[in-house]
Amino acid sequence: MRAEAFFTDAEKERIRQAVAAAEAKTAGEIVPMVITASARYTEIELLGLIVGLFIGMVIEGIWSDPWGSPYFQLWPAIGALIGYSLCRLHTVKRLLASNRRIAEAVHTLALASFTDRGLHHTRDHTGILILISLLEHRVEVLADRGINQKVSAGTWDEIVHTITAGIKSGQASDAFCRAIERCGAILAEHFPRQADDRDELPNQLVTK
């Protein structure tokens, strides 16, 4: 599934409103984000190509006939194409990628997105990124140092669990909104809204 289609337009609007309501009580900023995949995993695509090529060569070697059809010589190319195509499927990539590789890919993309969306430039360093990565079936929450210094290490794990449980039960948008509300409450506790606060970042769901 593409990130753009994960939530309906109505659900995207609910998420935007949830962010606006959460930020109305705090000086912090929350950016919700859904991405199709955190990495391309080209090494898996290459593996599929090589394995498919090898299988095609074996088939050619077994059934080829020097007096027969020249089309048997196409087996290596056909095998490579099939192997490469299969390993481009998200399900196959998720199956073949190690947990460590997936975790590293999601975390690296989350860090890059945190910077790209300007969360590290908030006035009090209280930006929070809530990221869903669809291919990997992973959720990551990143917070800037201002808020991380105030909360326990397991705080964001609870947010992650809320979203993953909601996705598994078919209530992704409800879970996402609850997670945003919870992040807003955490921010409001430590960084309540001040008279001169302004909305520093857009509230819309980011898809990529």
Estimate the helix proportion, in percent.
40-55%
Strand order of the largest sheet: 3-2-1-4
Look up the CATH topology of the largest domain: Diaminopimelate Epimerase, Chain A, domain 1
Number of domains as seen in the coordinates: 2
For the largest beta-sheet, the strand count, sense and barrel status come to: 4 strands, mixed
What is the terminal separation in angstroms? 12 Å
| CATH hierarchy class name of the largest domain | Alpha Beta
Strand content: 5-15%
User: What structural category do the secondary elements indicate?
Assistant: alpha/beta
Shape: elongated
Rg, Cα atoms, Å: 23 Å
Subunit organisation of the chains: single chain
Rounded mean pLDDT score: 92
Helix tally?
8
Q: Write the H/E string, N to C.
A: HEHHHHEEHHHE
CATH architecture of the largest domain: Roll
Number of strands: 4
List the uncertain runs: none
What's this model, at a glance?
The protein has 208 residues and is of the alpha/beta class. It has helices spanning 9-23, 42-63, 75-86, 90-96, 99-116, 145-148, 155-168, 172-190, and strands at residues 29-35, 127-133, 138-143, 206-207. It is 53% helix and 11% strand.
Keyword list:
208 residues; Diaminopimelate Epimerase, Chain A, domain 1; alpha/beta; four-stranded mixed sheet; 8 helices
Task: Give a written overview of the molecule.
With 208 residues, the chain is of the alpha/beta class. The chain has 2 domains: 3-39 and 101-207, Diaminopimelate Epimerase, Chain A, domain 1 (Roll); 42-96, no CATH class. Helices cover 53% and strands 11% of the residues. The protein has a 4-stranded mixed sheet, sandwiched between helices. Strand 2 and strand 3 (138-143) form a beta hairpin. Helix 1 (9-23) packs parallel to helix 8 (172-190), helix 2 packs antiparallel against helix 3 (75-86) and helix 7 (155-168) packs antiparallel against helix 8 (172-190). The radius of gyration is 23 Å and the shape is elongated. It starts with 8 loop residues before the first helix and ends with a strand. The relative contact order is 0.22. The model has no long low-confidence stretch (mean pLDDT 92).
